[in-house]
Amino acid sequence: MSILQEALDLTTGDRQESYGHPLDDFTKTANMWAVIIGAPVSAEQVALCMVALKISRELHAPKRDNLVDGAGYFNCLDMLREERARRAKQ
Questions:
Q1: HSE-up of residue 76 (Cα within 13 Å, Cβ side)
Q2: Helix, strand or coil for residue 69?
Q3: Is 3 in contact with 68 (CB distance < 8 Å)?
Q4: Tens digit of each residue's pLDDT (9 = 90 or more) over 22-47
Q5: How many domains does the chain have?
Q6: Cβ neighbours of 88 (radius 10 Å)
């Protein structure tokens, strides 16, 4: 299975059922990070920071998991942008 297919399966399958839509899940995380950091954080920034984490890990110790997860977080970013736009139209 390709890295992209595996990432797609992970971000649209059981994990979404377990944690909800990435917009809702990453917004909760953003709110917690904002308290810790002391500055506003968006759901989009959470996704990008998670990609950065995976890049950092890949630079330290290359593993397929880093690539899959990085692609997955980029997919989540796209999903949350689409959902934010959809909700804005309602």
A1: 30
A2: helix
A3: yes
A4: 999 999 999 999 999 999 999 999 99
A5: 1
A6: 7
